[in-house]
Amino acid sequence: MKKLIIVFSILLMSLSLPACSLGRQKTAQDWAYRFVVWNGDTYKATDEAVLDVGKQIGKVEHYSDHESTRATGVFSNEYHEGTALYEIKNVSTDKAIAVESSEGEYVKLEHIGKYGSKDK
User: Fold this and answer.
1) What tens digit of pLDDT does each residue of 20-40 get?
2) Which stretches of 41-114 are assigned E, i.e. beta strand?
3) Residues in contact with 83: Cβ distance below 8 Å, sequence separation at least 6, in sequence order
4) DSSP single-letter state for residue 91
């Protein structure tokens, strides 16, 4: 009888583990990539440094690390509110923009399409 209780307890615990993870909230690590949405377009973060930025074109207004978030305006799953966005000199904003990743350092964000589009 004691062995039956132990086996049943082990079985019950193993079945309850997957159920515990169902309520887990998604985080930034769950996103397919790091991005900024600006003017309704998605710009994927790269590791490419930008040395020649133009004028400031905006700031991140909303930050979220929850994949289900459907914020409007300028938002990101990587950069926090207030992070500045810039033109890249001699590059159309239809191709890329820059984000200030740290004081005086800029990273390229490549345009990949309209936000919410399945064609990324």
Assistant:
1) 444 434 444 466 889 999 999
2) 41-50, 53-59, 62-63, 75-76, 84-88, 96-102, 105-114
3) 59, 60, 76, 99, 100
4) B
Contact at 8 Å (CB) between 86 and 106? yes
pTM over 0.90? The answer is no
What's residue 47's pLDDT? 95
Residues 31, 79: contact at Cβ < 8 Å?
A: no
Residue-range domains of the chain with CATH: 26-114 (2.170.150)
Count of Cβ atoms closer than 10 Å to residue 8 Cβ: 10
Q: Which amino acid is at 85?
A: L
Q: Tell how many helices (H) and how many strands (E) occur in the chain.
A: 1, 8
CB atoms within 10 A of CB 66: 13
* C-beta of residue 115 within 8 angstroms of C-beta of residue 42: yes
